[in-house]
Amino acid sequence: MRPILMKGHERPLTFLKYNREGDLLFSCAKDHNPTVWFADNGERLGTYRGHNGAVWCCDVSHLCFIMFCLIEIGDSILTIKGPQGRINRAVWGPLNKTIISAGEDTFVRIWDSETGQLLKESDKETGHQKTISSLVKSADGSHFLTGSLDKSAKLWDSRTLTLIKTYVTERPVNACAISPLLDH
């Protein structure tokens, strides 16, 4: 494995994401300019301009639509804002018909990706109690995992927003991942 150094952001990176095929790498940063790179050589393919603040995450669908927090889809813009605080992470829901978001206000939300309408919101009692710092979906998209500063990670059903399992730790969960191959 060889590292590739890509220079192009003026402020710290906040998130990196490969597309499904692995040939493109998307970078988000505090400089307001998400960028896409060729994964094989680190050459810059393009920069997405027009954001007014730091871009904290992105997700790429299998059709190569890109979603940034706040949400930008292709050439059209759909702005989704949580009722309080910043959205830290967002991923495409099943069949790209929904967007799943999580952030500072401790709630996980499912939004209609066409209209931006709120469809579901996590329950205050079973949800996180502090800022959600991480959100990743399974390879098949059937469930997703959130990590929080409340020292827990939670596994959710992607369609129903039903809490499947809570994992308690001794420290804040800044990042989490779901293995695409193994049961962990």
Descriptive account of the structure:
This protein is mainly beta and 184 residues long. The chain is 0% helix and 41% strand. It contains no helices and 16 strands. The chain has strands at 13-18, 24-29, 35-38, 44-47, 58-60, 66-68, 72-73, 76-77, 87-92, 98-103, 108-112, 118-121, 132-137, 143-148, 152-157, 163-168. The strands form five sheets. Strands 1-2-3-4 form a four-stranded antiparallel sheet, with no helix packed on it. A four-stranded antiparallel sheet has the order 9-10-11-12, with no helix packed on it. It has a four-stranded antiparallel sheet with strand order 13-14-15-16, with no helix packed on it. The chain is globular and about 45 Å long. The two termini are 24 Å apart.
Concise overview:
By secondary structure, the protein is mainly beta. It has no helices and 16 strands. The strands form five sheets. The chain has a four-stranded antiparallel sheet, with no helix packed on it. It has a four-stranded antiparallel sheet with strand order 9-10-11-12, with no helix packed on it. A four-stranded antiparallel sheet has the order 13-14-15-16, with no helix packed on it.
